[in-house]
Amino acid sequence: MFCIMFVMPTLAVCENLAGSNSRSFAMSTHLTLGELFAASVAERGEHSFVVASAESVSYSDFAERAARVAGGLSAHGVEPGDRVAVMLPNSLEWLECFFAAAHLGAVAVPINPTYKYDEVDRILADSEAVVLVTDTEHAAMAEGLFEERLTVRRVFLTGGSDIDSLDCFDQLRDSPKAPRVEAAADTPLSLTYTSGTSGNPRGVLLSSSNYAYAAQTVAGTVGLHTDDRLMCALPFCHVASQVLGPLGALAAGATLLVPGAQPLQKLVRAVESSQATALAAVPNFFERLTRAEGLDDADLDGLRLAVATGAPISPEAHSAFEDRFELPLITSYGLTEACGVSTINVDGPDGRRLGSVGRPLSGQELQVVDDDDLQRRTGAAGELVLRGPNVMLGYLDEDAATADALRSGWLHTGDIGFVDDDGFVHLVGRKKELIVRGGDHVYPREVEDVLRRHPAVAEAAVIGVADQAQGEEVAAFIVVEPGHTLSAGEAISFCRDHLANYKCPGIVEFRDALPMTPTGRVRKAFLAQIYVS
C-alpha cells in the first residue's frame, strides 16, 4: 500500500501561545505523568491547585494528600499494576485516588457514577479491580458488589461507612506517605471504558506518557495561563475531561475549580463567584446557556476561555453562543483511544473554521483513508486515522480488537470526515452509523445538522432502521423546542429544501428527550433498541 503521510500544520506547544504567564513546556513523548506532577509541585508548590467544596488545596498539599492515599492503598495490598476502581462524582477525593494510583504505579479505573449495578459489575469483572472507592450514595450497591465480586478485596466509602464490610476513605487519607514508584513511560496509568454508544464498553489502556503528552499539548494549545482559574464542568470519569480539566490545569500550573453537579443557572453563578477565567463543559451546556432565560444579568466578563468537548456542536449554535457572550468557544475532537483530545479548533495566526473540529495537536498525525486504507484526496470524506504519542496501548484482553484498531501503526477511529484545503478537519459521521438506503450512502450527521436549523427543533438524532424495500430507512427522532409545534411532514419538507431526497427521513418520531451519555452524545444504539421494541 502506498500512502502519503499527511501531517497537519499546528502551533507548537513550546511557543508562547498564552502570553507572559504561560509555562515553558519542555515537550517529551517519554515524560511520565508522575514526572510532570513532580515538576509542577516543585515549581508551583504553594499556588492553589484545586478548589472543591469551598476547600482550596495547594500543589504541595495535594501531593502530600495523594502520597498518603497511596500509602493507605499500599497498606491494603495494592501493588504496581493492580487496578483501583474509582466511582465518584467530580471531587477532591476523585483526584486524590487518581493521582494516588499513579503514585503507586497502579492503574486507575474510572467508573461513571451514574452507572447501575450490572454496568459496574461488568467493569469490575473485566478489569479485575482489587479496590473500589465510591461514596455513601452507592453504599448498598458497593456492599452487594463486594460480596459478589471476589477480585475486589476492599471497598472504601467517602463520607464514612456504617457497613461493617466496607471501609472509610479517611483511613487512606490518614495513612503514612508511600514512596513514589518510578514508572516507565509506557506503564499503564488508566483503564478507561468507552462510553458504549454503539455497543458494550471496552477497556482502553492508556499509558503515563499518553497522559503527560496530552496534558501538556492541550494546555499549551488552548493557551492556559499559570494564573488561570479553570472551572471544569465535565465528568472526570471521561478521558477528555481529565485532560482538559485537572491534567490541563496541572500542566499549565493553573488552579482547577470543581463545581460539583449543579443546574445551569447555579453553575453560571458559580462561574461568577469563583472568578473563573476558563470554563470547560459539554457542547449541550453552551447551547442551553445561549437559549437560557433569566441570565441577562450574568457577568461572564472574567472568562477569557470557553472549551466544549465530548460531542459535536453545530456552526449555528457555536455562533449563537459567541454572539451572545462575546467569548470565543474552543471546540475539540477526540476519542478515549487517543487520550480524549486529538484536534482543537482554536484561534491562531491563520484563524479558525466554524463547523470544523480544528487541526491536529502538535505531534499528532492524521490521515483520511478509504476502505482499503488508501489515503483520500483533500476534501474527500473517509475514515479518520491517527498516529501519535496519545494513542492507546490497546484494549484490555482483546488482542483481535486491538489489532483491528491499530493497523500499520495507525489508530482507526471509525469516524468519517474530511480535511479542507487549509488543513481543518470536518466530521461527517460514524462509519458504523452510515445508512445505506437503496444503495445510496446517507451520513446521519448531515441530516441532523439540517434538522437542528429548524427553529422548532431543540435536538435531533438520525439512525438507520431496517426496511424491506430499501435495505435501510432514514429515521429521525426529534425533540421540539418548548412553545413550538412541528409535524413529521413539516420536518421532512424542511429537509427536502436542503438535502437530496434520498437523504431525507422517511420516518419521523417525536420524543420528550433523547437518551444521552454524560458527555452529551446521543446513545444511538439504545435509541435503535427502543425503536425496534
From TrEMBL:
Domain annotation AMP-dependent synthetase/ligase: ranges: 38-396
Record carries keyword Ligase: yes
GO molecular function terms attached to this record: acid-thiol ligase activity
Domain of life: Bacteria
This protein's UniProt keywords: Ligase
Annotated Pfam families: AMP-binding, AMP-binding_C
Domain AMP-binding enzyme C-terminal: from-to ranges: 446-520
Cited Gene3D superfamilies: 3.30.300.30, N-terminal domain of ligase-like
Protein's UniProt keywords contain DNA-binding: no
Signal peptide, first to last residue: none
The protein's name in its UniProt record: Acyl--CoA ligase
